[in-house]
Each structure stands twice: as C-alpha cells, then as structure tokens.
Amino acid sequence: MTTTEATDELTPQQKAAAFLVALGPDTASAILSFLDEDEVESIAQEISRLGRIPAGTLEGVLEEFHNAIISEGTGMSGGIEFARQLVENWQGSRRDEIMQSLLEAAENRPFRFLTDLSPDQVVQFLVDEHPQTIALILTHLPTTFGAQILSLLPQAMQVDIALRVAHMDRTSPEMIERVEEGLRGRLGNIGTADLKGPKDGTDSLAELLNTADRTTEKLILDTLGQTDPELAERVRALMFVFEDIVQISDKDLQEVLRTIDTKQLALALKGVSEEVSDAIFRNLSERATETLREEIDFLGPVKVKEVEAAQTAIVAVIRELDEEGRIAMRPGAEGGFIE
Fold first, then answer.
1. In terms of pTM, does the model score above 0.85?
2. Which domain covers residue 265, as residue numbers?
3. Domain contains 337
4. Helix ranges (DSSP H) in the chain
C-alpha cells in the first residue's frame, strides 16, 4: 500500500489530528493558538480517539502537508495523554473546561480499552461473540478502527453485523456496562463504562463503510440491496453527498461532467462552497466554464429543494458511474486485484 492509499481512509479531521501528533505537543500547541476554542476542542477530541498511528499512514499525512520529515519504524500514537498535553500547553480561556470535557469523554467512552489492541487482536477476541454484541461494540469504537475490524471479520459475518449496526436502537447504559464488564473480565481487566447517548444505526453503518475497503463495502451494500433495498439506499445516501465531489480525482470528475446537463449542474452549484465550485470549474474547458457561469447567473434566486434535487440527481449519476467501474467515488478504496 502506498502512503497516499494509507491516508485515504482518514477524514480531514483525522489527518489534521495525526499531523499534530507528529509535531509533538509543544509545536502543536503553537498551531492551536491560531484556532478558535471550538476548533481546539474538536481536534483535541479527535486526537484522543486516534490511538496508534501506523508509520505508513503517518508518512502519507506528512506528505499531504508537504512535510519532508517522517519518523520511521513503529509509527506514533495519539490518544488521551497526547491530547491532554496539547490542551495543557494551549493558552485559550477555555483550557480548563476543554480539559475536563476531554477527560470525561475518554473515561466514559464505551469499550475504549479495546483500542489498546490491534484490529487483528480485537477480531480474534470478538470472532466468537454473538453478532449483535459485535455490532454494539463497533458502533462505539472510533470509526476508522471499527471499519478495520469489520473488514477483518469473516465475510459470512460482515453482512449480518452490518445489518445489525444499521438497525441498532439505543442500548441501555446497564446493558453496555454488562457487555463491557464481560469483555474486560475475559481480558483480565476491571472497569465499567456508561453510554453517553444514542447513536443512529444507519449513520454508524455509513461511517463504517465509508472507511472500509472497497471489497467489504461492495459486499455489504450488494447484499443489503437484495435483503433491504430501502435501507441500502439510505446508507448509500449517507455515504456520499454532493460536497464530496472534491474527493474525486480530476480525471474521474471530468468523466462525471461529460454526462451531466449544464442546466442541472448550474442549479446544483447554487450556494455551494468555493472548494466545490473550484473543483468543477478547473475540470471544464474555458468555453464550458463561461457557459456554466452564464447559466448560474441566469438562474437567479432558486428554491433550496430544487438545488438539493439537482445535487441528488448528480450524486446518483456519480454512484452509477462508480458501480460501472468508470470512476472511483473514493480513490484508493478500490479493493484488491483480480488475476
């Protein structure tokens, strides 16, 4: 796996967190001085969830930030201790409040002790558990970590567990505590955890599949499409939204633009971020760009639901092209090779 592929499964927030881990708490704190307090709290929470960062992933993150320095070997670790040092060195007015929030979140996060193990170890530990128990655990683990575990489970279990994640209702704190105590007992540890609040099962499954490898994603979605088409469509809708076109390579985006009507595209671009519009315009010819800009200006004020409908239609085209193998919605997630 290349360093670029190693970072494809990370969200922008996770990449930023990994980058700060690489810099160390002192240098990272200096960078935090340029962020507002909500951003500091958000990134500190993300760092606390990172756990161990593989060397290849770390190198890919550093390359993306155009940094030539990379630590080789076993990689580096984020985690609660790094996040604590980071916030301690930060001089914001809400430092104590954010520190308390960080420590409380880490202490109460269900099944957090499993993040001290590798995904392989967790799979070996959980493979004989009931699928409902595994689904419950995956919905409370960091998303990337949970996706790695889902991908490593036997294929015969993956779809069943994915369905259970999607249909997961709120689980009582007492049940969470009993399951966790049982797992801790098996590992020879002692401790309890509480449930901070409900998680939507469909959202959880979409998050897991967004960071899983392409083979796992396709297997689960294809099977869902046969057993529960409505659920499969809801998951797909959560997995890729119009704004995610910035993640598509320029080559693939050009393929998408060749299949979309100019009027529909103009409507979809009303009110989007500069990042999204730039991605579109840089992949059009000068003449096509001029035509599209004129079409956007000609539209004038439009209803939000009309814009959303146009964006939804374009996402459907993107998904169809992805299914046909003509583009990749998530570059680097194409799965393995076929001889």
1. no
2. 241-323
3. no
4. 3-7, 12-23, 25-32, 37-50, 55-64, 80-89, 95-108, 119-126, 131-138, 143-152, 155-166, 173-187, 201-211, 214-227, 229-239, 250-257, 262-268, 274-281, 286-299, 304-323
